[in-house]
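Structure ticket #2291
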Amino acid sequence: MDTLNADATWDRLGSIAQLLHQAAAQVWSDADEAAPDSPLHDLGLGVYLAHSQASALLPDDYELRDVDPLPDLEERTPLQLLTDAEELTRPLPLHQPDLVHGSQLVVDLCDLIREARGLDY
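Resolution: structure written out below.
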């Protein structure tokens, strides 16, 4: 990957990780208020694992750029955050050796979106 494309790819993955972090925090907060057997616990774990996957795709020396957070980030629902994260994966060069595991992230995001919709979340 050339440097210009690599920087854009890593920034995109960094944004995906940030969206997933926010989604995980919101789902876990709601799960804490729900019954112990609530499916929100499973969804929260899945979102947290997807966040870990996205973070693991970033190079070890990658530092998130200082950017202003999206103004409505905390007002978005977890489903909206998951959908935004999935949309950001679309232009990723998943055929590149550095991103070979990115395909699994996309599949997992689609599963999480389906699960959140199934919960009317």
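Closing remark: The CA atoms of residues 36 and 42 lie 11 Å apart.
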